[in-house]
Amino acid sequence: QVQLVESGGGLVEPGGSLRLSCAASGIMFSLYTMAWYRQAPGKQRESVASIATSGSTSYADSVKGRFTISRDNDKSTVYLEMNSLKPEDTAIYYCNARRGTRNNFWGQGTQVTVSS
Question: Across residues 12-36, what is the average pLDDT?
Fold first, then answer.
């Protein structure tokens, strides 16, 4: 079965950094577009960053220049490097794997809290 397991979340002070990881199993990882989403309390889930099979990336305007998404196909893992964190980055971060319209998988999420 498909599993996406996120790790690396935690509590960090404003201006700090975190690196999230998402290890995938049960899929041909290299064939999937991988993405990170987040959901803050009382808000809808929003896209943060994505990386295509080609390696091309896209980012939400709110994180451009601060976050970097990358993937390691040999390890079936996608990463999200988050720098210059702000309190408004506080959310549960979810890993997503997508291929076409019928193959769309989610991880359980990892909490990121930015607070002094």
Answer: 98
